[in-house]
Design a protein that fits this description.
By secondary structure, the protein is an all-alpha fold. The two termini are 24 Å apart.
């Protein structure tokens, strides 16, 4: 069985991971720092934007894929995945452009990501209840 909707979101998030990894590498080369960060807030923001994607994207994608495999509507998977991807992009953009300071894009990205994870969890519960309840 395949999960084409989730696959598209995984591909987009994979590309975002490469972009954010490039940002971190740029600062690692600039400061010759192979591990950790220094006192540059832009360096720290790049590391955290990358790290935050790695912290949230896998669980969101796993939840979407399970829901898609279990037969949840592709439309629901699509809109939940869109919230996850847009949330991660906004968060990363807000982190990098806000240099770690509060930024509207970052806050909206957090909310969209949390909403996507919540909706995916509810879809999974609902799906299991429909099948086994």
């Amino acid at each position: 069985m395949i999960v084409p909707v989730t696959a598209v979101f995984a591909a987009v998030l994979g590309l975002l991971l490469l972009v954010l990894s490039g940002q971190v590498v740029k600062y690692r080369l600039k400061y010759r720092k192979g591990l950790g960060i220094n006192d540059d807030p832009e360096f720290e923001a790049a590391v955290r934007a990358h790290g935050n994607l790695v912290e949230y994207a896998p669980m969101g994608l796993i939840m979407l894929a399970i829901a898609e495999l279990n037969g949840v509507s592709g439309t629901l998977i699509y809109w939940t995945g869109m919230a996850l991807v847009v949330g991660r992009i906004l968060h990363a953009w807000g982190m990098i452009n806000g240099k770690g300071q509060p930024h509207k894009a970052r806050m909206l990205g957090i909310l969209l990501t949390w909403l996507a994870v919540l909706v995916a969890a509810l879809l999974l519960f609902w799906n299991v209840w429909q099948v086994y309840g």
